[in-house]
Design a protein that fits this description.
It is a single chain. This protein is mainly α. 74% of the residues lie in helices and 3% in strands. It has a single domain, classed as Rhodopsin 7-helix transmembrane proteins (Rhopdopsin 7-helix transmembrane proteins), CATH 1.20.1070.10. The chain has a 3-stranded mixed beta sheet. It starts with 14 loop residues before the first strand and ends with a helix.
């Protein structure tokens, strides 16, 4: 349940101190290098997918790969919201974040994160139509409809982020100002509020936890239908390609949704495990996305070969 503290107008918080991840002091340099390497590899991997989809006509003409490019774009920005702060926490630099910076970080994390949540659902719907209703797919999922659905996901994500920010920062914060987390997220910030947080915790449970769980169930339902349709395919090669494509998506979805649901369905939790789980879906999942979608996706690998061979041929011609 929520809690209440007496508010003193003389001690209004103007900045938050992010305590970061618990870690041995003698491993600071190593950890900062590890997270910096992960950051660079993730950004380069997602940039590679973006450029491949943009450069290959066969990919950017298909809704599946338009959605994949949007996912990569989201991952790049979402990763930049949290990981630089993690790296900073391992350095002697100040851990203070202005109040406005905390507001902005919480907004963009939930705006981009919820947009990604909706996008995963759209990707599952796209695969369901392509495999279960192949004859109607060009009509049901064309470029125009794909653009409308993606725009809707961005708008819904923006509304979600705005609601969370308004509800979180309508509360007074009068101290202490130490956020026991590696970024400004709802559960960690609410613990510092000098007012009853029951309504906020309920909204967090419904608006984040239940919505995420519902999207996850819709995705699982889509894939249950896909598996049923794939098993009825007459050719082994068709089954293999369908399972390969869908397996990549389902792997990424699972490692994103399960930790997310674990955290936000337990908004009042103070478990030290929450930080480790949050690192998994904010750091590990964006790193896995480009790896899974490039190594397990035959179309993307073929497109990379075509682009590479095309450039090689151009160089030789010159």
């Amino acid at each position: 349940m929520g809690k209440t503290r007496n508010v003193s107008l003389d001690t209004v918080v103007t900045e938050f101190i992010l305590l970061g991840l618990a870690h041995p002091r003698n491993l600071r340099v190593l950890l900062s290098l590890v997270f910096f390497t992960i950051y660079i590899l993730t950004q380069l991997g997602n940039l590679l997918i973006l450029l491949t989809v943009w450069a290959d006509p066969k990919l950017h003409a298909r809704p599946m790969y338009i959605l994949l490019a949007v996912l990569s774009f989201l991952d790049m920005w979402l990763f930049s919201v949290t990981v630089p702060r993690i790296i900073l926490s391992f350095t002697p630099a100040s851990k203070a974040m202005p109040f406005g910076g905390c507001v902005a970080q919480l907004y963009f994390f939930h705006f981009l994160g919820s947009t990604q949540c909706f996008l995963y659902t759209l990707m599952a719907y796209d695969r369901y139509l392509a495999i279960c209703r192949p004859l109607h797919y060009p009509v049901l999922m064309n470029g125009r409809l794909c653009t409308i659905l993606v725009t809707g996901a961005w708008v819904a994500g923006s509304i979600h982020g705005s609601i969370q920010v308004i509800l979180t920062f309508r509360l007074p914060y009068c101290g202490p100002n130490e956020v026991d987390y590696f970024f400004c997220d709802i559960p960690a910030v609410l613990r510092l509020a000098c007012a009853d947080t029951t309504v906020n915790e309920l909204v967090t449970f419904v608006d984040i936890g239940v919505v995420a769980a519902s999207c996850f169930m819709l995705i699982l339902l889509s894939y249950a239908n896909i598996v049923h349709a794939v098993l009825k395919m007459s050719t082994a090669d068709g089954r293999r390609r369908a399972f390969s494509t869908c397996g990549s998506h389902l792997t990424v979805v699972t490692v994103y949704y399960v930790p997310c649901i674990f955290i936000y369905l337990r908004a009042g939790s103070k478990s030290p495990l929450d930080g480790a789980v949050a690192v998994f879906y904010t750091v590990v999942t964006p790193l896995l996305n480009p790896i899974i979608y490039t190594l397990r996706n035959q179309d993307v690998k073929s497109a990379l070969k075509r682009i590479t061979m095309g450039r090689g041929a151009t160089s030789e011609h010159k």
